[in-house]
Amino acid sequence: MHIVLVTKYRRKVITSEMLIRLKAIFKHLCEQQKSILIEFNGEEDHVHLLVNLSPDNNISEFFNEGSYAAMLKAAMLEAAMLLC
To answer: Domain named Transposase IS200-like: which ranges (predicted)?
Structure first.
């Protein structure tokens, strides 16, 4: 499954350090969900994930993991604060 996550208003807030952190978060999420992160890349305003979801998982369950949502939000807030 190809997933694209875009920042609000396509603001350029994602740094190279953030991309490294986001890749680690998504890799861990995939391991927990018994899925495989095939490819991850991104730019300042979006990231692309290519994920092989396990048959007993769907996209809503993949992103419904509360702790991961909080980690992503914290990472994005950190990036936004650096621009202020």
So the answer is: 2-84
Query: Residue 77: which CATH number?
Result: 3.30.70.1290
- Please give the angle made by the CA atoms of 52, 67 and 30, to the nearest 5 degrees: 15
Count of domains forming the chain:
1
Rounded to two decimals, what is the model's pTM? 0.75
Query: Could you list the residue range(s) of the whole structural domain that residue 61 is in?
Result: 2-83
H/E segment holding residue 50: strand 46-52
> What H or E segment, with its residue span, contains residue 41?
strand 36-42
User: Residue 61 in contact with residue 68, Cβ under 8 Å?
Assistant: no
